[in-house]
Amino acid sequence: MIDQGRVLLVDDEAMVREATAQWLELSGFSVECFSRAEQALERIDPFCPGILLTDVRMPGMDGLKLMTEALKRAPDLPVILLTAHGDVDMATAAMREGAYDFIEKPFVPERLVERIRRACEKRRLMLENLRLQQSLASRSVLEARLIGISPAIQRLRRELLALAELDTNVIIYGETGTGKELVAQCLHEYSIRGKKQFVPINCGAIPENLIESELFGHEAGAFTHAAKRRIGKFEYASGGTLFLDEIESMPLHLQIKLLRALQEHVIERLGSNTLIPVDLRVVAAAKVDLRGDPNFREDLFYRLSVSELHIPPLRERIEDVPLLFAHYAGRGADEHDREARQLSDHDLDALQSYAWPGNVRELKNIAIRYAVDPRASVAELLSRQTPLISAPLAGRQTLSLAVRVAEYESQLIREALERHQGNIKAVMDELDLPRRTLNQKMQRYGLNRSDFTAQ
Questions:
Q1: CA 202/CA 315 separation, integer angstroms
Q2: 3-state helix vs strand vs coil in the chain, percent to 5
Q3: Phi/psi at 4 (nearest 5 deg)?
């Protein structure tokens, strides 16, 4: 039998309540019964999928008071009142206050069923409209965060909103600079966990001897310098979302502990034998495909990759570049108290003929420089990039991808050091790099802070 709708039935008389419920269930409705108004009120919220059918005269909170309180929680909820013969005037007045309908006792069952059916249909249409409005609002907000009009970014937004409704673990794939953490934040915010914590951790930026404590926490005295108990990211994120960036860099021995935490939904702090239950969604991000990676456990991969999102690189959605550039340039102008600049046709051509190997992170950097330097054109700013970026591929095809990426990375760090005159903290903030990672890269590329400090 097709479900006709849900009815919250409130009546303090057990025989009447049971007989009414039985008739409604035989007519195809799902019925939840309450002997007291206060009990029913706890089940009502704006998305309550059904109607309220309540007797008027009851001890404690009566039906009229219940209607008033219910409509405060769900203004569009249809409320049908069951009244005695002498209460008709009162019920008529209640309809002016928001009641959907009333029916006198004793009632003809078929008439009650028909009125409830119409009320349930009205509620169904109201909820569909409400969900559509919320969906459109969500899409509008999401479009302002994941900017673009290309088919690739539109597909990403659709997939994100669909996955947000599922409380499953997700792996996000994307090149460096594509915005994996932003996508993870959006996934969290549009999920049922959106009002809880979003806790990010970069697995590649934490020393191997500290990452276990970062994830699972420790007790006082668990190791040298562990002076007091510390709550780990897993425990802190319970109820919300834990974002594991650069998951591919997680050490193998720690992958085993992560797998157990995901399977058993419990963790142990270092130095403790107590199991601590955790309830969270894990979103991981990787730059490379983890499927078949010999350095990544297959069982952990399948535990994490219940769902996947793939962020397109900027070169695959080049039509989005002008929108993104205008957005970040406008923000840069506001932040630095500069007048917003209009892009010329020449600027637009330069933007859309560029390969953007650093993706949105690189574009943001160029856009801010464009906003704060009124003399610079887009083409001029791009020409200052390493030849890897500004020159065509011809003549560089003999170089490996690793060499090209290293050249680009070295140039970005060098420019940031020059721009901030060797201020390491400012460079860390601009490039979104931990100090340890920045120091390693500077050492690798022979960059010394003293060479960039003001004399």
A1: 25
A2: 50, 15, 35
A3: -80, -15
Angle ∠(246,249,250) on CA atoms, nearest 5: 105
Phi first, then psi, for residue 150 (nearest 5°) are: -70, 155
Question: Are 231 and 217 contacting, i.e. CB atoms less than 8 angstroms apart?
Answer: yes
Q: Which two tokens stand for residue 57?
A: 């005269």
User: What pLDDT score was predicted for residue 386?
Assistant: 54
How many other CB atoms sit within 10 Å of the CB of residue 93?
11
By the 10 Å C-beta count (0-12 exposed, 13-18 middle, 19+ buried), 257 is classed as middle
Compute φ and ψ for 309, nearest 5 degrees.
Answer: -125, 135
What DSSP string runs through 193-252?
TTTS-EEEEETTTS-HHHHHHHHH-B-TTSSTT--S-B--HHHHTTTSEEEEETGGGS-H
Confidence of residue 138 (pLDDT cuts 50, 70, 90): low
Largest CA distance in the chain: 95
Calpha distance 107→101 (Å, rounded): 13
3-state secondary structure 197-211: CEEEEECCCCCHHHH
CA 116 vs. chain centroid, Å, equals 38
Separation between Cα atoms, residue 260 and residue 258, nearest integer Å: 5
Amino acid in the structure at residue 246: E
Residue 172's nearest CA partner among 58, 276, 312 is 312
Backbone angles phi, psi at 199, to 5 degrees: -120, 105
pLDDT at 311: 96
pLDDT tens, position by position, 425-450:
888 888 888 887 888 788 767 777 87
Q: For the chain, how many residues are written?
A: 455
Query: Residue 190 — pLDDT band, cuts 50, 70, 90?
Result: very high
Predicted local confidence at residue 404, as pLDDT? 64
Whole-structure pTM over 0.70, yes or no? no
DSSP assignment letter at 128: H
Tokens of 307: 């769902």
Residue 343: Cβ-neighbour burial (10 angstroms; 0-12, 13-18, 19+): middle
Q: In which region does residue 30 sit, left (phi positive, over 0), alpha (psi from -120 to 50) or beta (all else)?
A: beta
Q: Are strands 101-104 and 79-83 parallel, antiparallel or unpaired?
A: parallel
| Beta partners for residue 10, in sequence order | 34, 54
Of the candidates 31, 86, 41, 32, the residue with the CA atom closest to the CA atom of residue 62 = 41
Burial status of residue 132 (CB atoms within 10 A of its CB: 0-12, 13-18, 19 or more):
exposed
